[in-house]
Design a protein that fits this description.
The complex is a heterodimer of chains A (114) and B (113). Chain A is mostly beta strands. Chain A contains no helices and 11 strands. The radius of gyration of chain A is 13 Å and the shape is globular. The termini of chain A are far apart. With 113 residues, chain B is mainly β. In chain B, the strands form 2 sheets. In chain B, strands 2, 4, 5, 9, 10 and 11 form a 6-stranded mixed sheet that branches. A 5-stranded antiparallel sheet of chain B has the order 1-3-8-7-6, with no helix packed on it. The termini of chain B are far apart. The chains are: A mainly beta (114), B mainly beta (113). At the A-B interface, strand 4, strand 5, strand 9 and strand 10 of A face strand 4, strand 5 and strand 10 of B.
């Protein structure tokens, strides 16, 4: 079956531009998570949704970052007015339900801000 | 402040021998622990997990041990195979496991033929 997909796989943008990163979770998965991973580090939590409700956005670095999941399936992470420090791998994960279940990760979007 | 620590950046073992990957954590609220394996250019893949009510979980060649008093867990791979060569991440969560995961920095395992 299809796993978590993310698009684009690579995004190069100029400082100050807005970017939108898309995540398509595994069909039927209730929870969707966004992480950011710097080189040589583990993924770092940004935000997560149960269905369409954003449950925790405590990991979003600042108000330039936002995420939505309007229909409880596909999610978009938007970064406004990008800065060079936003360059990283952005990973999406989904899980079947809450409580004791593993998260399945997508391949990530490599964002480079010039 | 790293809540999940993988203090060894790399490990090299011979095929057929045991690989032991270690992980320490500081947050006593963590109640679910997971190991992920990551190959280059791919996302992390779930490997094995353990709840804090257990001290051992086994799945084929992979066994995870949890020592709550020491806030330490380890992943044992035996026998190790060249295909096990990857970066391994330890992760932890509170409130049952499908909340946010806190990851360690990862450890690169190389299994030599």
């Amino acid at each position: 079956g299809a796993g978590v997909s993310q698009s684009p796989r690579y995004k190069v943008t100029k400082r100050g531009q807005d970017v939108a990163l898309r995540c398509d979770p595994i069909s039927g998965h209730v929870s969707l998570y966004w992480y950011r991973q710097a080189l040589g580090q583990g993924p770092e939590f940004l935000t997560y949704f149960n269905y369409e409700a954003q449950q925790d956005k405590s990991g979003l670095p600042n108000d330039r970052f936002s995420a939505e999941r309007p229909e409880g399936s596909i999610s978009t992470l938007t970064i406004q007015r990008t800065e060079q420090r936003d360059s990283a791998m952005y990973r999406c994960a989904s899980s079947f339900q809450r409580g004791g279940h593993e998260q399945f990760f997508g391949p990530g979007t490599r964002l480079t801000v010039l | 402040d790293q809540q999940v620590k993988q203090n060894s950046p790399s490990l090299s073992v011979q095929e057929g021998r045991i690989s032991i990957l270690n992980c320490d954590y500081t947050n006593s609220m963590f109640d679910y622990f997971l190991w992920y394996k990551k190959y280059p250019a791919e996302g992390p893949t779930f490997l094995i997990s353990i709840s804090s009510i257990k001290d051992k979980n086994e799945d084929g060649r992979f066994t995870v041990f949890l020592n709550k008093s020491a806030k330490h867990l380890s992943l044992h791979i035996v026998p190790s195979q060249p295909g096990d060569s990857a970066v391994y991440f330890c992760a932890a969560s509170a409130q049952g496991g499908s909340e946010k995961l806190v990851f360690g920095k990862g450890m690169k395992l190389t299994v030599n033929p």
